[in-house]
Amino acid sequence: AQSVAQPEDQVNVAEGNPLTVKCTYSVSGNPYLFWYVQYPNRGLQFLLKYITGDNLVKGSYGFEAEFNKSQTSFHLKKPSALVSDSALYFCAVPGAGSYQLTFGKGTKLSVIP
Amino acid sequence: DAGVIQSPRHEVTEMGQEVTLRCKPISGHDYLFWYRQTMMRGLELLIYFNNNVPIDDSGMPEDRFSAKMPNASFSTLKIQPSEPRDSAVYFCASSPTRAGTGEQYFGPGTRLTVT
Description:
Chain A is an all-beta fold. Helix content of chain A is 0%, strand content 51%. In chain A, a hairpin with a 5-residue loop joins strand 7 and strand 8 (64-68). Chain B has strands at 5-7, 10-13, 19-24, 31-38, 42-50, 53-56, 65-71, 74-79, 88-95, 105-106, 110-114. Classes of the chains: A mainly beta, B mainly beta. Chains A and B meet through strand 6, strand 10 and strand 11 of A and strand 5, strand 9 and strand 10 of B.
């Protein structure tokens, strides 16, 4: 079964510093990988996806993610964190059906002013 | 575009009562998903539809849960009878085939509390 793991329940970073939210994957074949963000009391929002091609994927709100096949990782990054980036971040991989997703357990990002 | 619309936003009910959650997907989207989110279990896919037809309901926890999609613009998730362990936030999401795999648009959720 295809799965993702988010090893950190919470990440704290100071405003203006670079941030990284970690995700590792276990998939067969070529992986499709996704990041979603959930702001408080809101539904999830799509941030970015990796299908194929460049290992560095750019997404919404200045976020990017680096695909690393040798380390089976897909870490989410941003060069300079904003307080407004504080949210819950989910890594995801397609499930049994091609259009469904299996989400990681989520990582809570807190950006400290 | 109004996005995915869910109603009600909050529902408080007593154990044993029937609960119906509603979802209006984005017009033109042919996939619809129902999720449940809890602190303990995270985000779980309950069921999803393609062109109003249920494709995979293996995530539906038990027979007390049922979902329907009578037309392209409306879906319901029903719990009968409800139990306290059903308390969670329920999300509906939709996706167009043209977006490719995985790009889903989520509604704001319904927070269900069963006492």
